[in-house]
């Protein structure tokens, strides 16, 4: 065998080796691709993506559970052991209605004196509808409710559900005592006075948030053994007796 034939054989062997190496690499690459496609191997990035998706699904499920609103359970009062009944989300029909103003930091109260007047114990009152402002809010008002606390009209109370799920309130009447220690009630007005001490404006003020009340999503009136009260329901169906909180 001459030198020329030897060189040809060497070149053929090199080509064959190169072809075999390429085929092996192709087979390995295909094997890795199939394993990756079947989920048998993951890159660190893929693992992070899958973990992120799993976490988001858990968070979404938890959020849905947290936002679930259950029906009011009249047996689950948080701050009192009395038995409650006849819960209703209808406001007391006493001639009062409220609307939240566009700034959400004040409320307009409309008083129909033909209905409310006889309940107010006033000796004289107009027969028309008059509007008053309710001021003093430092948070947005979400909804308003004309409620009642006690056994008679002196317990008529305005409630405000705030955007942070707390509850503020305004009693329509305020109790006073005369020089002989006799108690009586007056309308719970706040007054502004002119320079000559005449009344320039009369309006109502929120008394602020009820202590210990939070997470409220809806207001109702309900009966309890000693009279009527207003209750604030939470998303889990339990509720606060707001009359107890006022006392």
Would you mind describing this structure in some detail?
With 247 residues, the chain is α+β, with helices and mostly antiparallel strands. Helices cover 27% and strands 34% of the residues. It folds into 2 domains: 64 residues; 162 residues, no CATH class. β12 and β13 form a beta hairpin.
What key phrases describe this protein's structure?
alpha+beta; 2 domains; 5-stranded mixed beta sheet; 4-stranded antiparallel beta sheet; 4 helices; 27% helix
Helix-strand blueprint:
Layout: H1 3-37, H2 44-66, E1 85-88, E2 96-100, E3 107-112, H3 113-116, E4 129-135, E5 141-148, E6 156-162, E7 167-171, E8 173-177, E9 183-187, E10 190-193, E11 199-205, E12 216-224, E13 227-234, E14 239-241, H4 242-246
Parallel strand pairs: 4-11
Antiparallel strand pairs: 1-12, 2-3, 3-4, 5-6, 6-7, 8-9, 10-11, 12-13, 13-14
Summed up:
The chain is of the alpha+beta class. Helices cover 27% and strands 34% of the residues.
Helix % is 25-40%
What is the N-to-C order of secondary-structure elements (H for helix, E for strand)? HHEEEHEEEEEEEEEEEH
The overall strand count is 14
**End-to-end Cα distance:** 118 Å
- Beta-strand content estimate: 25-35%
Low-confidence stretches: none
Query: What is the alpha-carbon Rg in Å?
Result: 37 Å
For the record, the count of structural domains works out to: 2
**Biggest sheet: strands side by side, in what order?**
2-3-4-11-10
Main sheet properties: 5 strands, mixed
Structural class: alpha+beta
The coarse overall form would be elongated
Count of helical segments?
4
Q: Roughly what is the average pLDDT, rounded to an integer? A: 86
